[in-house]
Specification:
Radius of gyration: 19 Å
Number of helices: 6
Strand content: 5-15%
Strand order of the largest sheet: 1-2-4-3
Helix content: 25-40%
Largest sheet: 4 strands, parallel
Number of strands: 4
Distance between the termini: 35 Å
Order of helices and strands: HEHHEHEHEH
Length: 171
């Protein structure tokens, strides 16, 4: 059975990213958040930095100004803005690639356990797209896990050390 998820409204963009981040931390699943372009996207910077530092699996879908209106009143250099956060950034270039780009973004966020911003020009949102038979199996859980031999080697090195230093956490 396919469960498409739930929509939870937020008071503002900052809260929406914080909610997606919290969802990722508590469930181990990808938190997906959608915000509008311009100042709405800019409002996500603070909580996105926190999500990056915590290695939360968050996919931030941002609107962007229409691709045919480069001098739009809410036009902001989103790639430059989000580069300061440490999150990965990708701009969808064609509505025909939207499903593939979302699939790749979800796979990236899941496998790298780090936030990504997927920037979608608002004029693409009214286009018809070919769903293309996307299967959930294309996005099976793929986070890296050590092999039993690698764990055994690490444990051996730890046991043989006279003064081991263990740094642990989400970083």
């Amino acid at each position: 059975e396919h469960n498409p998820g739930s929509y939870l409204p937020a008071i503002d963009e900052r809260s929406a990213v914080a909610m997606a981040s919290g969802y990722s931390r508590t469930t181990g699943k990808i938190g997906v958040v959608s915000v509008t372009h311009g100042p709405g996207a800019a409002n996500t910077v603070g909580p996105l930095i926190e999500a990056v530092r915590a290695n939360d699996a968050v996919l931030l879908l941002t609107g962007d100004t229409p691709s045919n209106q480069p001098s739009h009143a809410q036009d902001i250099d989103l790639a430059g803005l989000f580069s300061a956060t440490g999150a990965a950034f990708h701009r969808v270039r064609s509505s025909s690639q939207l499903v593939a780009d979302i699939t790749r973004a979800l796979h990236f966020v899941d496998s790298m356990n780090t936030p990504m911003v997927l920037n979608i020009p608002v004029d693409f949102l009214t286009d018809d797209v070919d769903y293309g038979g996307y299967q959930r199996s294309e996005l099976e859980h793929s986070r890296l896990q050590p092999t039993p031999d690698a764990l055994d080697n690490a444990l051996g090195a730890l046991v043989q050390s006279s003064r081991p230093l263990v740094l642990a956490g989400r970083g």
